Amino acid sequence: MGTGYGVYIHKANINEPSFIDSLLRSNFNYKYRVTRLEKRGQEAILAQIKANTFVEPTLLDDFNPEGESLPSHIPATPTALPADAVLLGLLSDNDFIDEFNTLTIVGELRNDSNLTVGQTDISIIFYDSTGATIGTATGETLLEVIQPGENSPFVVTLTRPQGYDSYSLRAIARPVSAQKSAQLTVVELRRYEDGAGFFHVKGKIENVGNSTAKRVKVAASIFGRDKNIINVGFTYVNPPTLAPGEYAEYDVTFAYYPRYASQQVIAFEE
User: Fold this and answer.
1) Quick check: 236 pLDDT over 70?
2) Integer angstrom CA distances of residue 226 from 39, 108, 137, 230, 265
3) Which of 54, 94, 160, 195 is most buried as measured by Cβ atoms within 10 A of its Cβ?
4) Residue 220 and residue 170: Cα distance in Å, rounded?
5) Which helix (H) or strand (E) holds 231?
6) Higher pLDDT, 211 or 31
7) What residues contact 196, with CB distance under 8 A and at least 6 apart?
8) Is-contact 49 32, C-beta < 8 A?
9) Please, which residues bridge with residue 132 across strands?
10) What is the pLDDT of residue 79?
11) How many other CB atoms are there within 10 angstroms of residue 47's CB atom?
């Protein structure tokens, strides 16, 4: 995503030695790319290939010797991008389910264009094990305005779709006018687990600019050793309004934080 092509991306982390794509449509051309995340979030291309599917599903009989029924559902054609849309790059994503059957999808997106963008629209489609569409969800990035080359986390929370097996994700934005905002910087950051089993990312921010910052928020992302995102949280700082030179405290709390290794904090005006 974010390379300028009007395509629909299904991106996954594959740890097995082989991968079977079950979401194909007949009589279509596909491109596959295997990449590895390097330092500074850059993707190194390891392999890429083009593949075509057959027109007639019956041509696949020789590859189905056990006589298993093939999925009869064909996923819908991806929706074309609006003329002014900018695809956002997906750096990594993660999903988890809590004891209340709530599904949370988190991720980190990057503006790979040379335009300032906003009005973000994250579209998620859910599939069952046969590739049939069983539901959709939408969301937004936490940053309302994303500068060129800037990253923004996102959080989408919903009741887990019944029969959910996988999902695809597409994030777009639209060009907006660059807005002057207060300059906020993180001057203190620490992390710890409390006695109740919660994980905290806590610290202070400072307004180092020349204008007053209002309704200031902090977004905290935690990552594993593989640099992939684990969870995202956000909160208002205390106090939420900062004059130039003033400080505020923040405390972002996580209940889900397996195998965390690092964190990133972004301060911004709502």
Assistant:
1) yes
2) 10, 14, 27, 10, 18
3) 94
4) 22
5) strand 229-236
6) 211
7) none
8) yes
9) none
10) 59
11) 8
Query: What sign has the CA pseudo-torsion 16, 22, 23, 25?
Result: positive
| Whole-angstrom distance, CA of residue 117 vs CA of residue 148 | 8
- Coil vs helix vs strand at 226: coil
Q: How far apart, in Å, are the Cα atoms of 39 and each of 42, 127, 153, 226, 228? A: 6, 32, 19, 10, 12
Q: Map tokens 């309704």 to a residue.
A: 215
Rounded to whole angstroms, the Cα distance separating 90 from 35 reads 13
- Which value, in Å, is the radius of gyration of the alpha carbons in the chain? 21
Give CA–CA dist 195/184, Å, rounded: 31
CA atoms of 84 and 127, how far apart (whole Å):
28
Burial class of residue 220, CB neighbours in 10 A (0-12, 13-18, 19+): buried
> What local confidence, expressed as pLDDT, does residue 73 receive?
44
Q: Domains in the chain, start-ordered, CATH in brackets?
A: 75-175 (2.60.40.10), 184-269 (2.60.40.10)
Model confidence over 150-171: pLDDT tens digits? 999 999 999 988 888 888 888 9
Q: Which of 142, 48, 136 is nearest to 88 (CA)?
A: 142
250: number of Cβ within 10 Å:
24
Closest-CA residue to 131 (of 33, 36, 45, 53)? 53
Helix (H, G, I), strand (E, B) or coil at 94: strand
Q: Could you tell me which residues come within 8 angstroms of residue 61 by beta carbon, excluding any fewer than 6 positions away? A: none
How far is the C-alpha of 122 from the C-alpha of 125, rounded, in Å? Answer: 10
